[in-house]
Design a protein that fits this description.
Layout (H helix, E strand, L loop, with lengths): L1 H4 L1 H7 L1 H12 L10 H18 L7 H18 L5 H11 L1
């Protein structure tokens, strides 16, 4: 992962683009049928790993990340779908 190899350059040049893309992937929206649960799971894990590397630079995205987590929890509860392991891993990474 490039972010782990050179965090400062990654944060300066790629963090905004990466987070915009990843946050788009994890949105729970009725009209977004192109993103499946596997893609969401992978995106949640990627956000969690980026958060570990980016540290305080991820703070500007926390509101959007937390909203995605809340929406995901609501969607899972509403549709009676079990939470994925990666979703819960993402929540654990941000809780620490």
């Amino acid at each position: 992962m490039l972010a782990a190899y050179d965090p400062s350059d990654y944060i300066d040049f790629y963090l905004d683009q990466s987070m915009t893309y990843l946050l788009g992937q994890v949105q729970y929206d009725k009209e977004r049928k192109g993103v499946n649960d596997t893609e969401r799971s992978v995106s949640f894990l990627a956000i969690g790993k980026l958060a570990v590397v980016a540290k305080q630079d991820i703070e500007r995205y926390l509101d959007d990340i937390m909203q995605s987590i809340k929406d995901g929890l609501k969607a899972k509860r509403y549709h009676h779908v079990p939470l994925t392991r990666s979703f819960m891993s993402h929540v654990a990474i941000h809780a620490s």
